[in-house]
Write a structure and sequence with these properties.
With 371 residues, the protein is of the alpha/beta class. 23% of the residues lie in helices and 22% in strands. The protein has two domains: 129 residues, Cytidine Deaminase, domain 2, CATH 3.40.140.10; 208 residues, Dihydrofolate Reductase, subunit A (3-Layer(aba) Sandwich). It has an eight-stranded mixed beta sheet with strand order 10-9-8-11-6-12-15-14. The structure holds NADP nicotinamide-adenine-dinucleotide phosphate (NAP).
Length: 371
């Protein structure tokens, strides 16, 4: 599964389709073929792996398919993977993440019905990270969604704070609160997203470039959970960060200076003169972005939280205090009493040098009322 996750990470981060990897194994454990999904309209990972095995004249009959996402059971632009696996004589399927889609899901059940041995394997969290934007959309598809008006972009709120929740000192300085390992990790997340969003306040204060810096991923220490999806894949050629940069999005009515670094020279810059968070996500969705990271600052982060549009939190916490005169990570959320504060579910905790990364998510959407 580790290998399948590495293959999946080669797929495009901001595609309409999920990133999926597949390895076909013979009974003795040797690899017969490998594949990954290269984007909408191209063969799915299972089909690519079968083609790879055939190209090497390997027999797939009786083989095991290890795949990062439950094989799809529907016909879209390509045929269902369940059929491709059956036609190839695959005897066993091990998958990491269940497909929540109303039309594409159900592949595991279908395969089991025709006698394929189907088991849930490891790697669910890593696979889900790789497909975060797609997963959120699939889970909200008609028939599954409790909130059909929810924006079609999976939004991650990233904060880098002191222990007392400050994102800048009294004089506005914020570079750097967290250490090098945290910043390197944040760059691996940037490399996997379709857009990075900040407010005009952050651009005017910090003049960030908002690019995904190529370089090795931060290594979790021994106390950390494995995060193989964030590991570099030497066989993948250029580092993923060297591929198309995420869209750099600035939100706010003030002008972005002509010489601001965020403008860059690659045309991947967007200034949205609005204060309406939903408009921002709609503009991104219209450009095919399914996953975005909101990197602050406090004004914009507060607006998105208040609008209920944050799906996931990446909180990098550094062991220092900035005190009352420091700038809080958030402005007022209008929470008068503890019971009114929405709770998040911690999904991942990782030590990064002296810092700690906490990843929390909303509770997964349940079935729609009446469905
Ligand atoms: N440590 C960290 O993780 C981190 C990250 C980012 C920033 N920072 C720090 O945060 C400070 C900047 O804070 P900030 O709050 O000014 O930054 P900000 O959130 O980036 O920008 C605030 C601006 O966003 C625009 N905006 C768009 N929609 C809005 C809405 N619905 N509600 C409110 N504002 C909206 C407004 O700009 P217009 O007035 O132009 O319309 C507003 O002035 C700097 O000191 C920076 O270093 C720290």
């Amino acid at each position: 599964m580790d290998r399948a996750l590495v293959l999946a990470a080669r797929g495009p981060a901001d595609d309409a389709n999920p990133r999926v990897g597949c390895v076909l194994l013979a009974v003795d454990g040797t690899t017969l073929g490998e594949g990954w999904h290269r984007g909408a309209g191209t063969p799915h990972a299972e089909v690519a792996a079968i083609a790879d095995a055939r190209a090497q004249e390997n027999v797939t009959h009786g083989a095991t398919a290890v795949v990062t996402l439950e094989p799809c059971a529907h016909t879209g632009r390509t045929g269902p993977c369940t059929k491709a696996l059956r036609d190839a004589g695959i005897a066993r399927v091990v998958y990491a993440l269940a497909d929540p889609g109303a039309s594409s899901g159900g592949g595991a059940r279908e395969l089991a019905t025709v006698g394929v041995d189907v088991v849930r394997g490891p790697g669910e969290q890593q696979s889900r990270e790789l497909v975060a934007g797609w997963y959120a959309r699939a889970a909200r598809a008609p028939g599954r969604t409790p909130n059909p008006e929810h924006a079609p972009v999976h939004l991650v709120l990233k904060t880098a704070t002191s222990l007392d929740g400050k994102v800048a000192a009294a004089d506005g300085t914020s570079q750097w609160i967290t250490g090098e390992a945290s910043r390197a990790h944040a760059h691996t997340v940037r490399a996997r997203t379709g857009a990075i969003i900040v407010g005009t306040g952050t651009v005017l204060a910090d003049d960030p470039s908002l690019t995904a810096r190529p370089g090795p991923a931060a290594q979790p220490d021994s106390a950390a959970q494995p995060d193989s999806a964030a590991q570099p894949d030497p066989a993948a050629g250029p580092d993923p960060a060297a591929r198309t940069q995420p869209l750099r999005v600035v939100v706010g009515r003030r002008d972005v200076p002509e010489d601001a670094r965020v403008r860059g020279s690659d045309g991947r810059f967007l200034h949205l003169r609005t204060h309406e968070p939903r408009e921002v996500l709609a503009a991104l969705a219209a450009r095919g972005v399914g996953h975005a990271v909101l990197e602050g600052g406090p004004g914009l982060a507060t607006a998105f939280l208040r609008a209920g549009l944050v799906d996931e939190i990446h909180a990098y916490l550094a062991p220092l205090h900035l005190g009352e005169s420091g700038r809080s990570a958030l402005a007022d959320l209008d929470i008068a009493t503890l019971a009114a504060a929405p709770r998040w579910r911690t999904e991942h905790v990782q030590r990064l040098g002296d810092d700690v990364l906490l990843i929390a998510r909303r509770a997964a959407p349940g079935p729609a009322p009446g469905s």
